[in-house]
Every structure is written in C-alpha cells, then in structure tokens.
Amino acid sequence: MRRKIRTEEEKKEYQKEYIAWYQQENIEKHRLAAASHLRELRSRIFELLGDKCANCGFSDRRALQIDHKDGGGSKEIKSSESPTQYLRMIIKNLSRYQILCANCNWIKRYTHQEMLAPRGRVKIVRERPKRIYKER
Fold this sequence. Notes:
mainly alpha
C-alpha cells in the first residue's frame, strides 16, 4: 500500500485510500472488540447489582435483564448515543436500576402498565368491561 507521495493532494488521496483499506481489513476485529467490551460492562453491572433477580432470586444470566426501578427505560436507551454510553450511565446511577429475570420483568411491566405501543407511546393496559347478556 506504500507509494511515493509528491504533492499535498496525493497525500490526501493516499490517506483516503489507506483509511478505506484499513477499515475493510479490520472491520471484523473492531466489531468483535466492541462486542467483548459490551459484554464486560454488562457483566460488571450484574456483579454490582447482585447477580440475581431482585424479586425471585433466579441467577442464570441468560435470562437476567437490567430493569429501571421507576420505569422509563426505553426513553433512556433512545437518548443514549451508543450502547457503551448507556451501560456506563447505568454504572454511574446504580441506585436507579435492579436485576430482574425475564419473567419478573414482564410481570412488573404488565402490573405497572409499562407496556409499549407502536412508535414508543405508552399503552395503558385496561381490562375490558364484562358484557352483560340479556336472557331472551
């Protein structure tokens, strides 16, 4: 990839070509490194928050989730620039989060009416009124 550069324009062209080549050659390496970093941050959060469901005590990490105690997690996730930034924010504000297993998290979402409708609007879950049938 090396070549003799004579002018400033050639230097800029060479830099563009080199950056494109470098990104193409190392994209998978960077992707794997980023994924590994996210796993490490998530693991650290689990350890700091107790590594088990706060409700039932379930401890298999495959089904554990980070939960916002007061709801509103989807807004925070959307406002973050990247997953790494979001996980670092959780580490800074641990008192606002808890670990729940998937079942307890969905039960909490249902009972506290945290269900999301399309386009991110909160959907209020209400029971349907019972129909009263007249006898004929």
